[in-house]
Recover the amino acids of this structure.
């Protein structure tokens, strides 16, 4: 069946009363009241009431809920509570029959466990809460890209199959690649840094991979990352960019009223995102926690901080030794780095900073961290060609979406999540 | 160095004469003419002439081409041929020194082989031809996404790590996944089809993987694919969408005048893309080629067709047996399928069609093609829940970009291409 003449339900309106229309969608509900039947038809854009009378009722024999139908009929004004107009059916074609019992209730009236929903994700997408999460994700992606484009960032695609286990090398999936060993990239870090040399400001939104045997609501082995890198920007500049992009995305999401209603969560729009230094956070945690400068903040510490700061906030100026080799220390205090994390409560959403651009300092930092500069030879070469100072960040999109739509488990915001126990469907 | 106060070269203009500015970029050229030196400074947005006089010339001692500098100075009108304004330098800071000899000439005056350029891709990105290809790619991606959004397609992200070697299973990379065998996805085909059940119209632009030992200018083992799938559309409808998107992207690219000039190729904007059936193509090839209905079109045949049709054209209505199991035959002739390829000359850019949505027909097609329906159990289940009729296509973005910018090898349009011989950098 083609799109020829078919209109979306959202495009019907009162002035169309009397017009013939062709609708297509799935049967969300049906009721027979003697000589008249009512079909509630849903498509991706909305819900329509279809009135079926007389001989046409026979064409609904055996019609099950969730079956796919095409309906032609005439638009009419209605007194039904939830509709502006209804369609008086003239023909109903059953295009695809849903066989019951279904594995989950797509209307969400009977609650299903997450595993059941993920195993029947296609049907789960008829649950308007689920569909709305992914429509909001679409809108957020659109907002992020528009924001980056207008700030002169060029979209890039870095390789996901890489030849050396760089960046520490732990937790990488490996594969055989035409007789060689290759790895799946954990981030675009080294490539995006190199690209600042000629393109200046770059971004990538893509899937990356982490072979970590984690079983939490915030770790997946395949995740979507939003990455930027910009020449001639300091870490405070890219923090500004992140703050603005987050705000713009939250505004965009909050304007999607139908989806916000379906998820039952109004996206919080942060005004100014507070910036707290690591040292201030250590002070806030107090001596009870036994944390002092140089200690990493454990999950328990972040949960305490999250209680004090339930919304978005930056944790800045981390000890250099806690950050990756490419993070640039401060000029006046090499123990402190030009770095930040974006937090939402206890949850880390993004991590970034200024990068080292001097190849000799980079080499010594690699050695300090017990990494072999020879493994980074391809990368270090580029720093001899005139590498601009640059800064950037990576943000976990799945976590950001979980915060934005108000769910605890990132799996709610990923179509087909991958974790140690879940490889299909 | 932060962005504070720094402006992009493209934002300088005559009315700014007399104003102080801070620029940053790399030294494309420098000439000393006695008491005055000229630096040609490039950033991602353009080229500026910097005039350096008197004592300041000393700060340029040892300055090499391609080194990164920050320049503060005063804007002045100029009589120099290629510039509207110039900057009279007051301070020059060398931020990063380029060590010569460089592996390639980033100005492209000395031609470098592709391998050398790919090995020094960061520096190659200072070649304005190369940078322009990737800026055009950015613009094309933006145009495609805008076009899809406005046609109510929702962006999705399907898993790239998959649990079964579906879709034939040949040419898949495999990896160990927490003690199980997993594969890298070759396409989002099955997932995107399932998503039409609730989201109706979906698209994905992402990397996919093919473990094929090919050594050509048009095959890579990691490639970017643009995929759409739409419920209630027939193959002619999604062909219309593809035709419009291609046209819109070509228009968007053709409006990037600076980049078009740098690539030396004006993007061809197709008006109506001709539609030729497979049977017509077989007739055109004539009996000399020895091709008759049901034979696949070989590279040599496509090259002959490409000579007759040097631009964009659709090849439609392929024999059912030449197409994947999920392609839907015509109602009146099961030997012919509702399918198409988008060609540019001999090069296949996209392949698509109407899909089967009846699970029993799908099962028998799988068996006909020697595939085990048990391997597709997760997928086939979804077809019992009320799967709408749907159609879609996948387009190789790298090939489309190669056509659009007028290069023969897709590697020119991929940052870090992957093939059997190339796994790094």
């Amino acid at each position: 069946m083609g799109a020829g003449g078919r209109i979306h339900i959202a495009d019907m309106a009162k002035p169309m009363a009397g017009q013939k229309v062709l609708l297509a969608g799935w049967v969300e509900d049906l009721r027979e009241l003697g000589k008249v039947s009512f079909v509630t038809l849903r498509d991706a854009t909305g819900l329509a009431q279809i009135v079926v009378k007389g001989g046409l009722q026979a064409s609904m024999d055996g019609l099950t809920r969730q079956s796919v139908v095409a309906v032609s009929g005439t638009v009419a004004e209605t007194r039904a509570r939830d509709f502006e107009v209804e369609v008086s059916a003239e023909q109903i074609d059953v295009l695809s029959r849903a066989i019951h019992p279904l594995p989950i209730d797509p209307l969400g009236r009977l609650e299903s466990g997450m595993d059941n929903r993920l195993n029947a994700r296609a049907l789960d997408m008829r649950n308007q809460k689920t569909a709305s999460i992914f429509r909001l994700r679409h809108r957020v992606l659109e907002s992020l890209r528009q924001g980056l484009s207008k700030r002169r960032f060029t979209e890039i695609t870095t390789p996901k199959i890489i030849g050396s286990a760089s960046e520490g090398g732990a937790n990488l999936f490996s594969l055989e690649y035409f007789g060689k060993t290759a790895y799946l990239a954990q981030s675009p870090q080294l490539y995006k840094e190199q690209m600042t040399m000629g393109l200046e400001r770059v971004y990538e939104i893509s899937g990356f991979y982490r072979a970590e045997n984690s079983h939490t609501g915030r770790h997946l082995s395949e995740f979507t990352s939003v990455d930027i890198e910009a020449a001639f920007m300091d870490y405070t500049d890219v923090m500004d960019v992140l703050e603005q992009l987050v705000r713009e995305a939250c505004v965009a999401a909050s304007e999607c009223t139908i989806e916000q209603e379906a998820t039952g969560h109004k996206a919080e729009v942060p005004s100014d995102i507070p910036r707290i230094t690591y040292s201030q956070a250590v002070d806030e945690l107090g001596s009870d926690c036994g944390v002092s400068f140089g200690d990493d903040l454990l999950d328990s510490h972040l949960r305490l901080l999250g209680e004090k700061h339930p919304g978005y906030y930056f944790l800045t100026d981390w000890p250099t030794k806690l950050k990756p080799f490419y993070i640039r220390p401060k000029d006046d205090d090499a123990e402190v780095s030009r770095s930040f994390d974006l937090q939402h409560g206890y949850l880390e959403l993004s991590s970034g900073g200024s990068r080292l651009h001097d190849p000799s300092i980079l080499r010594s930092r690699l050695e300090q961290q017990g990494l072999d500069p020879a493994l980074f030879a391809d990368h270090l070469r580029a720093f001899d060609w005139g590498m601009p100072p640059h800064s950037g960040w990576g943000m976990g999109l799945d976590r950001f979406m979980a915060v934005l739509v108000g769910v605890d488990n990132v799996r709610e915001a990923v179509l087909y999540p991958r974790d140690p126990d879940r490889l299909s469907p």
In short: Chain B touches chain A through 108 residues (CB under 8 Å). Chain B has two domains: 9-96, 122-413.
